[in-house]
Automatic annotation (TrEMBL):
It comes from the Bacteria. This is PEP-CTERM system TPR-repeat lipoprotein. PROSITE patterns: PROKAR_LIPOPROTEIN, TPR. InterPro entries: HAT, PEP-CTERM_TPR_PrsT, TPR-like_helical_dom_sf, TPR_rpt. Gene3D superfamilies: Tetratricopeptide repeat domain.
Amino acid sequence: MSKPSNIARWIGLAACLGALGMVGCDAFKPRTDAEYLAEARSLRDRGELGGAVIQLKNALQKNPDNGAARALLGRIQTEQGRGAEAEKELRRALELKASDRDLPMLLAEALWLQGKYRELLAEVLPEEALPASDRAVLLAWRGDAWLALKQPDKAKAEYDQALRLDPGAPLAKLGLARLAYLQQRREEASRLLQEALQAAPDEARLWSFQGFLAESGGNPEQAELSYSRAIELRRFNQEDRARRAVVRIALKKLDQAEQDIQALQKAAPNYFLTQYAEGLLYLRRAKYPEAQTALENAERSNGDYPLTAFYLGVVHLAQNHVQQADQYLSQFLKQVPNSIDAVRLLALAKYQQKDFAAAKELLTQVLRYRREDSEALRWMGSVELALGNTQQGIEYLKRMVELDPNSAQARTGLGFSLLASGEAQQGLAELRTAAALDPQLVQPEVFMALAHANAKEFDQALEIAERIARKMPDSALAPALRGVIQLGRNDVEQARQAFTEALARKPGDPGLLHQLAQLALREKKTAEARAFYEQALQAHPGDLATQLHLAQVDAAEGKLKAVMERLDQAGKDHPEALEPRLMAADYLLRFGQPERAEHLLEDIRPRYPDNPNLLAALTQAQLENRHGRQALETAKALTRAAPRAANAHYLLARAYAENQAPRESRAALTEALAMDPKFLPARIAQVRLLASEKRSGEADRELRKLLQDHPENPEVLALQGWLALTENRPEEAVNAYRRAAEKLPVTPSMTNLAQAQWRTGDREGAIGTLEQWVRAHADDGAARYLLSGFYSAAGKPQQARAQLEKILEADPRNAVALNDLAWLLRKEDPEKAYALAESAAELMPNSPVVLDTLGMILLDRGRNDRAVEVLKRAESLAGGEPSIRFHLALGLEKLRNRDESVRLLKAILADHRPFPERKEAEALYAKLAIH
């Protein structure tokens, strides 16, 4: 086949040009603005708003003064909810005197869409020249503006005036109906709406409000019909379509809801109700991350819509992001304080955060209104049990069973609680009833097996496990249960075999791998434990619990750097989770790095401002850093966030003590013990307080009670060591600290033991304890720092220097280590010493010790002016510390300021406080005083 010729193209061209000359051709004729406007109207009538807008903009490009095009463009933009763009076009159309009588009403709507209520009231005036019906519409818009400004009396006056002009004015009656609804006169609202509908059955906004009334009244079927009618009458109104999508989700018509949302995404993708409806659809389909993203977009688009916060709380709770759920539900309740559903969910969030006191308060509120809410009763029972109120907890669970005596789940919960409270026979009876009510329910049999195992009735427990195995021959549950029972029997090998069998049936299960890892750790096989956890992580990438367990293995091996890296990764994988950050702070405190712990917690505090766990950890870090004022403020915030928590008042007591407020400290400690007389940290603090008040007999008596109640507790043993040191019994302190270190081998245990050994005069033993510790825990900066000090005191500067350099390898910005190394290198390497001292001063510009080191090195370098300036600042910050004052006197003498140096030396020596350079100070004073 031959290649086509160009003849056809030439024929077409000739047809355009004409047979005898240059005649016009439609294909090349420019279109007029009127033609573009006509096309836009046609497209709008077909519902193609995007195309209509394009053609209108083409018309305005041809003729910017085409008032009709601007009026139509403003109308379409109003219908699309784009108030700002609509306002601009409508104002221009009015300037051009476009012949569209709806322009004033459209402008009112455009201003209302933007929330420009004051502007609407100032500009939208019902002029006498307008028809009465139009003036009534404008008055209705003014009423709506006053209503939005929460001035109902002025709103009613506008609506009443509209009805005097036009007794059937539907939008005025709609306004009065809205006002009646807001004032909880629902029947009147419905009556007014029906009157308006009789007068104007084709007014879409009336059907929209009817849909809202039906939806808020719990009639989603009627709401769907009403919203559908509104859409038929005003097809471009996105709000009605979005609300219909929400109603359809409630009716479980998910495919139809999705169709509405798809239409919304084409017409108004950034409209907050589009994003809100999309979020609810994802939530209904249990696609929680997608729901979260859509709802967060809705919140960014419109942060004033309270239900977005409510459902964000639901979504976060579904993903176990309990802190975020707490935040959003609390935010919602500030706007809608009477929502029992939100109170109920917030109670669950508090329970999951172990803030049981707050959960109880919220659930009390729920049960006041819903006495027969079985779920609330179950949670309240669990809360009371967690608070140690066993009998009250069981009573709530019994009420739950009374509501539904044939509920196997309810009886299972009650049975478990009775077992936990020590009422084994009653608990087992409830569990047997639950098993009989629902033979397929395995949970009661599992609890029965565990109860028998707890009672050392291992054969009966194993018999139940075998019964479960017969019911579920391919399930991992029975061998897993058998493993737990064998663990109770202390048969490690049988337990390992059972867990291994369960794992073969359920490969990669994190719980089973955790059990096997724990068995390995029991035998101190950390490498084997790590392998199990890594296998779990491979099967479930990013699993938070597994990441945290691996961090614990790293910590057991003393690898602080690895711990922090792993927890940092867990935080990145789970940006909403607080637990990795809290665990990181805890390990930093354990390994003697409270500064890093405080910085970490301060960085994340804005995201969790009222979280009790974070506030408690931050108070602890601030106390460790001796930041007393900040610790007190944080502790006060903690008691506001958790007013009934013993730990909050205990930390407040410590903060008051740090701020030299003994009366307030004792009151807070008394409050903590009143809330929980068995709260161990408060009892320990009580002993310390008694000792500090020189009430040694009472302190010893309370310590004996603690040792009787907690003979193997490392904190109690450490307290015994501390009290022995306080009472100058260092040998007894060594024994107590050694036992504490055996029970809990962490940095404070080892440093306490080493310091006690040093006090007994066993310097080699103290150094040996720390040397052995840092060999196994290379990242432990606090232990290395103490070891460096011991080396210096023992006359071993090279070893001291090596420890400080190791600290700086891991943490180059450790100002304390920089300062001490600078002091050690003053004579040996003055240039390096100077550089280190400057770095330390930059990092800690208000530390008198750091400034003192820099000042002395500056004196060594002959930079006397700056040295004295630095030493004066150190002296002002040090509160009269004699060594620093002596160094300042040396500097003043080098500046030939003899009189001031003499006055300072005289004051230092008159103070009688001991300091290492006292003899040098006496010699300098004698020398200067003679001259």
